[in-house]
Amino acid sequence: MTGGPAASPDDAPEDIPEDSGRPLGFSARPDLQEAVALWRRWLATEKRVADHTLTAYTADVAAFLTFLTGYHGQPPSMNTLGDLTAMDFRAWLAALARDGLIPASRARALSAVRNLFRWLDRSGRLHNAAIGTITTPRSKKPMPRPLTVADAATLLEASGAEPDAPWIGARDRALFTLLYGCGLRISEALGLTRGEAPLGDLLRVTGKGRKERQVPVLPAVNEAVRAYLDACPYAPGPDAPLFVGVRGGPLNPAIAQRQMQHLRRLMGLPDSATPHALRHSFATHLLAGGGDLRAIQDLLGHASLSTTQRYTDVETEHLMAIYANAHPRARAKE
């Protein structure tokens, strides 16, 4: 796994761009210093990466080589890189974690180092198979941030107020009531046609991967959609979009996002109050009311139960907050 053939004349140091002579912020043997400088030139001139990407990759590789200097007690060389084992790479990632780097930052650092090793391999300088066995650190998905039951009810009521065009208020209320009442993604709701309007007891939804599911339709959803259809000035055929814009064309998701932004400013809600938060609220409120996790998975159209299980964390967090605020034993002693 040690170094490959010698560099060709085209790779001589005099071909390194002027800026590569600047200090790179790490200690390394001359052969490795030269290789890193050539790699940077390749990124800048052949790959044409953005300046901020070049800076970030250089910093990540410099930090990696600095770690190796302390890890081995001497500046690394090309042979050092060739002899690294999977355990060495994992020790580096563990050190980054101890230093407080979040998974996304560790993943970026690994991507930079992998890029260097791929270039060294393709250019015939060095091959190390161990780095290919290292798993990229996974970022934890952000926790769903649902609305409270009271905020959801108030928001749906407020969404119907549109003094300049009452039918638009009826449309927004119908859309948001559908998202919250049936747990739809906004793309699923906006993909419905007039013929698929949720006016009965069940709604057939086509979700991700063209996977179909059926969800129950609450009377409140029926009423909101009927009120919108009665008020809407456009009456296209059954294959036309259910939710339309001011000119009768398909409603743009950005319009719904903008209306939600307006509502949350009026109500003093956090930035997490988005149309998708209504779907989160649907799942969280069902779970809080005793809903079965498997049933909620089916209603949401999740392929994996682990995705739905995130809502159990939300509910547990809520219960712990109630406990901390209400239980006498949870209160700090005066």
From TrEMBL:
Highest taxon in the source lineage: Bacteria
Ranges of residues in domain Core-binding (CB): 30-121
Active site per database record: R185, K208, H276, R279, H302, Y311 (o-(3'-phospho-dna)-tyrosine intermediate)
SUPFAM superfamilies: DNA breaking-rejoining enzymes
SUBUNIT field: Forms a cyclic heterotetrameric complex composed of two molecules of XerC and two molecules of XerD.
Function: Site-specific tyrosine recombinase, which acts by catalyzing the cutting and rejoining of the recombining DNA molecules. The XerC-XerD complex is essential to convert dimers of the bacterial chromosome into monomers to permit their segregation at cell division. It also contributes to the segregational stability of plasmids.
Official protein name in the record: Tyrosine recombinase XerC
Organism: Azospirillum oleiclasticum
